[in-house]
Amino acid sequence: MYGFLSVFNTDAINHVELLKGGFPSRYGGRLSSVLDVTMKEGNNQKITGKVGLGLTSAHALIEGPLYKDKLSFIASARASYIGLVLLTQKRLFEQGKRELYNNYQFYDVNAKINYKFDEKNRLFVSFYNGHDNQLNKIGWSDTKGDKFTLDWGNTTLTMRYNRIINPMLKLWHNKLPYLLNKLLTAQ
């Protein structure tokens, strides 16, 4: 919502990294910057959750084991209730007492399942669905005047399999972009 609300549901995020240059080849070769966002994997020991209310939206999170130490899940959701705040404005517009009516609504849902075959092998399945709707009406009624709407959304389903061949490879994988950047920018 015009930078007022975060694009990401912060309850579901584990790690965020901004790479402004010298990023690894796995991101392609024609980018100016990368925002690498990693989702939480879910608590594999006990079920936990939280609920929150903000000025414009509500959010909830639940995570826990489906099979202790093997299979865990996380699910989070956000939804705006700006439409409820603007209900008086809508009624005045419908009665012809107001010439302008604006509304903005959104929701998003994140879910992830994490299966641990053993210490070296894991399977992750992630789901995201989000939807935004903006409505602006100008005129004295629903039938007379101008209407402008933006209605958009995204849905993704991702499956990822990780196998650790050698623990040292993961260390190099994380440090290599940093080391290459230092080498290339050294004077």
Brief overview:
The chain is of the alpha+beta class and 187 residues long.
Q: How do the strands and helices of this protein lay out in sequence?
A:
Elements: E1 13-19, E2 34-39, E3 48-53, E4 57-67, E5 71-80, H1 82-85, H2 87-94, E6 100-116, E7 121-138, E8 146-163, H3 167-185
Antiparallel strand pairs: 1-2, 3-4, 4-5, 5-6, 6-7, 7-8
Structural class: alpha+beta
Listing every helix as H and every strand as E from the N terminus to the C terminus, the arrangement reads EEEEEHHEEEH
**Main β sheet profile:** 6 strands, antiparallel
Strand percentage: over 45%
Low-pLDDT stretches: none
Number of strands: 8
Total domain units: 1
Strand order of the largest sheet: 3-4-5-6-7-8
**On the 0-100 scale, what is the average pLDDT?**
82
Distance between the termini: 43 Å
Helical segment count = 3
Please state the CA-atom Rg, rounded to the nearest Å: 22 Å
Helical amount among residues, as a percent range?
Answer: 10-25%
Give a description of the structure.
It is extended, with a radius of gyration of 22 Å. The model has no long low-confidence stretch (mean pLDDT 82). The longest helix is centred in the last third of the chain and has 19 residues, at 167-185. The protein is an alpha+beta fold. The two termini are 43 Å apart. The protein is built from three helices and eight strands; from the N terminus they run E-E-E-E-E-H-H-E-E-E-H. The chain has one domain. It has helices at 82-85, 87-94, 167-185; strands at residues 13-19, 34-39, 48-53, 57-67, 71-80, 100-116, 121-138, 146-163. The strands form two sheets. It has a six-stranded antiparallel sheet with strand order 3-4-5-6-7-8.
